[in-house]
Amino acid sequence: ATLRLVSAIYTIVRSFRSRLAMSLLLRSSRALQRVAALNPAASYASHAPAHKEPSPIGNREVVGFGFNGAANYSDRTDFPLPAIRFKPVTPDIQALREKEKGDWKKLSIAEKKQLYRASFCQTFAEMEAPTGEWKSITGCTFFFMSLALWVYMAMKLFVYPKELPPTFAVDRQQAQMQRMIDISINPVEGIASNWDYEKNDWKK
């Protein structure tokens, strides 16, 4: 009797668990259907195959660590060892690479130059050659200086008054100075600190 009771309880528990799992599965399926109905693009994106991004360096060969460990190319006189070659691998370059494994005397000057240009963009002479950039910098500097001069002349002719304001007169400036002394403007380190109020004259 005890075994039958335990077996019955086990059967009930299994049935309950299977029903609960089926109910959860149906609910999740309905929720996914609602999401797909509201946003078909999201449903497609979730089932679409992952798109493999192309390599930023293409099929250019990685030949070393480079300046900072990144797979990029740059011409530097202080570190002339880029991480990748300048040009991608082509059948012509691949044929020359196989040929250079043999005797270099069999390579022509043009083939040697082609091999060099496949790995590097510039020679040391080209990197150190003057670029003439100072000409454009000098020209732009003089252009903006002349522009500022023309703006100043235009302001002088059309904006500023022909005569200076009356406050620029000598007697007005002296009166302003006397007023600042009378009210003791900045008596510690300013004008009033240099005025002798007992002698009514500048300190000597």
Describe what you observe in this structure:
InterPro entries: Cyt_c_oxidase_su4, Cyt_c_oxidase_su4_fam, Cyt_c_oxidase_su4_sf. Pfam families: COX4. It is a single-pass membrane protein. With 204 residues, this protein is mainly α. Among the domains are: 60-128, Cytochrome c oxidase subunit IV (Cytochrome C Oxidase, Chain D), CATH 1.10.442.10; 131-160; 166-202, no CATH class. It is 54% helix and 2% strand. The chain has seven helices and two strands, in the order H-H-H-H-H-H-H-E-E. It has a two-stranded antiparallel ribbon with strand order 1-2. The longest helix has 37 residues, at 2-38. Residues 38-49 have low confidence and may be disordered.
Q: What is the fold's blueprint, element by element?
A:
Elements: H1 2-38, H2 40-47, H3 91-100, H4 109-119, H5 124-128, H6 133-158, H7 170-182, E1 195-196, E2 201-202
Antiparallel strand pairs: 1-2
Membrane topology: Single-pass membrane protein
Family: Belongs to the cytochrome c oxidase IV family.
Pfam family, one: COX4
Average pLDDT rating: 82
By CATH, the architecture of the domain at 60-128 is named Orthogonal Bundle
H-E string = HHHHHHHEE
Helix segment tally = 7
Report the end-to-end length measured between terminal Cα atoms. 125 Å
Q: Could you give the count of β-strands?
A: 2
Q: Radius of gyration from the CA trace?
A: 43 Å
CATH class of the domain at 60-128: Mainly Alpha
The CATH superfamily of the domain at 60-128 is Cytochrome c oxidase subunit IV
- Give the overall shape, derived from the CA principal axes: flat
Residue share in helix: 40-55%
Oligomer: single chain
In CATH, the topology of the domain at 60-128 is named: Cytochrome C Oxidase, Chain D
Could you tell me the strand content as a percent range? under 5%
